[in-house]
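Posted in: Structural Biology > Protein-Ligand Complexes

Title: Requesting predicted complex, heme C in pocket

I'd be grateful if someone could produce the 3D structure tokens for the following input. Sequence and ligand are given below.
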Amino acid sequence: MQTFLKILTWTGCAIGVAILASIWWVLPLDGAGGSDSVRFLGRFHPVLLHMPIGLVLLLGLFELRGKRDPGSDTDKLVRFVLLVTVLSTLLAVVSGSLLAFGEGADEELVQAHQRNGILLGMVVVLMVGLRTIATPWAYRGGLMVAVGLLFLTSHQGGSLTHGRDYLTKYAPDSMRWVFGLEVEEPVKVARAEDLLVFDHLVQPIIEQNCVSCHNPDKLKGELNLETFDGHLAGGELGPAVVPSDLDASELYFRITLPQDDEEFMPPDEKTPLSDAEVNLIAWWIERGASPDLTVAELGPQPGEVEAYVASVFAGMLSPEELTRIQTEREELYAALGYIRAEHGVLILPTEMDSDTFTIETNAIRKTFDDGVLSLLEPYAESFVAADLSGTQLTDQAMGSLAKFINLRTLNLSQTPLAGATLGQLSRLPELESLNLYGSEIAAAALEQLSELKQLKQLFLFQTALDDETMVSQLRKALPDCDIRVAAAVLPLAEPAEKTDDYGSS
Ligand code: HEC
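-- Reply #1 --
Done. Output follows.
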């Protein structure tokens, strides 16, 4: 009788395993799709799958209790739970396969998820047989494999429904290495205008609403919206985004359809994008859909977009940071305003509320010397252009000027500079244009100037270097630089009354 029961049990196991294996042939994941009734049944998968998860873990807990006691109430209970586990696992595997088959899934991750689900089903079925073997370790071994497969399969299932990084997206930085993830740099910009339109504004909307279905694992419509290139590449119907062409952009078309349209995105009664989000995406596409321009660089924004950008920016900063940025800017403006009032240096922000400035000294040529320049040193990095023509700067000032590392244009024309230290300006990586017209630089400055490889433009007329042989030597040293000599004399700009943007401060 005992032997007969065992044979019966193992026969049942073999049939179960065979049924599971046949799923690969009956419901192949070839992307073809299935009928509505197949899809209807498949959609029970998310409901059914939690049963085996709980039950397999419960079986594990039973084993932790220790020795098996054949014939006891607990033993009967375990056997009952095992039977329910087998049935519920079969249901989950079959419904999942119907779902994937019905929806026409053929992605690699779905295939792997199904494969592991079927293997899990097989192991659970075999556990019934293994339990008839006298040593409990055969059964426990099977159980351990089942638990391993269970974790793998449910993690894959989770990645399928929520996206691959769902679990770890909000992991604190201190834990990210555990998952082999990069620590995400917090967005650090001082003004909303400095936000990157795609990275900081557009893509977060797409990630929130679209990427769960449009990623490399789950390419609905063959469309991957995880990357910028994916937007351009598009899907079955062509590019999702066509720069500067809203009408041709399938993505925009899909998010602006009537909500009850079958093609509306996101589908299935998911929350639609807000008007502000749609407007932002429209603005981005119309202005050329650049992958890396900032809000300021992308050009004028419609009012509602501006409000949206401002709210996103505010949301990125803690109130303390907001106050800190505000305070720092106020302090900078106050300090520069003071220097302007005391010494007459005209310091202008490059745009409203900007953190970068230009310096002009037209009105104070006679008094602007190395000493006044050194007063500006603490704020050196804030300046992008300096017109210091006709001032009293000497070679000593180059050490100070070398700290103005964001300078792009520098005008030192008509200064008493001898040029023996000009080489120090090679420390200004952004410097493109240097004007030395009419300055007192000596022939020895040639060697110093040869070091300024970053220059694109150099004005040398009416200097000791304004001579073809010397200039041709310099042209060899600076092949990328446009060196101007012997041009028409530049008229010296008259000291002009300038208004400024400080308001009353
Ligand atoms: C629940 C899954 C799901 C979500 C979420 C989703 N989509 Fe889709 N999307 C699909 C499916 C399925 C298709 C293919 C059928 C079709 O073309 O309507 C598709 C197709 C598309 C297409 C056409 C691709 C092509 O070339 O065929 C675009 C564009 C698109 N989606 C954009 C979006 C955008 C934008 C969002 C977010 C606002 C989004 N989708 C969210 C499932 C989804």
